[in-house]
Amino acid sequence: MTMCIDSVSKFIDECFSITKKDKKTSHKNVRFWYRGQSKSEYKLIPGVYRDTFNVKDDKVRLEKERHLFKDFKSLSSSMISPQVTPEKMYFLMQHYGMETRLLDWSSAALVALYFAVKNNSESNGSVFILDAYKLVDCQVSTKSRFGIASSSRKEYTDSVKHLNWEPNLQFPAYTFPVSGDYIDSRIVLQKGGFTFHVNGEDLIKNEKIMNQCLWRIDIKGSSKKELKKDLQSLGVDEFSIYGNLDSLSISIKSRYEDESNF
Q1: Beta partners for residue 130, in sequence order
Q2: How is residue 72 annotated by DSSP?
Q3: What residue numbers bound the domain in which 143 lies?
Q4: Number of domain units in the chain
Q5: Which of 29, 46, 86, 101 gets the highest tally of CB atoms within 10 A of its CB?
Q6: Contact 15, 217 (CB under 8 A)
């Protein structure tokens, strides 16, 4: 049964009830990832599989992805260090709004809650909790002990090479978690990790994943405004998440929306 919460304290209690349920679970500090979505009906699929990508055929999808990647590398070359590998550049593409096969997650629960409440105040939002260590095992027939990939792991590097027209390479047969190298302030501030998706399956629709390694907490739309204020008082706001002057201006202005703060 999906829990629907209306306060930060209830949210934290629910997170702990999930992440501390099995006392034998190891590496709890890194294995649980969180994702906030401002509408509970949104799917858990990355940009290249959303309707806004305007592609239905998988061959055409891959071709479009390859051209987007090529153009991003070429046009960003004056802004990104030449030491940044294609694998790390793919993380940057995701964080700066390009459509990729990556879905953003955070190891910080309150960051995910902020994303769930920041928009669409008329709608319920959701925070998903993923046991990243179990994700691959929920998709394969034998125990894999895959864990969380690094940016240098073969499954990820081969996937990025495949997106760069390198021959004789394919995506793996499963969606997998990959840790985001902290090469950019946004990834650092958001404590980011990613899932790399190889098909358009909505993780919510996968019964085995939902039963074993994915949980959902719904957020009442009517409580979003108050939750956002409470998060701000705890130091979680636009500036703490994005860390630039635009987000600083947004954060400062939001503090004075309530006249009682004057």
Answers
A1: 33, 214
A2: H
A3: 3-261
A4: 1
A5: 101
A6: yes
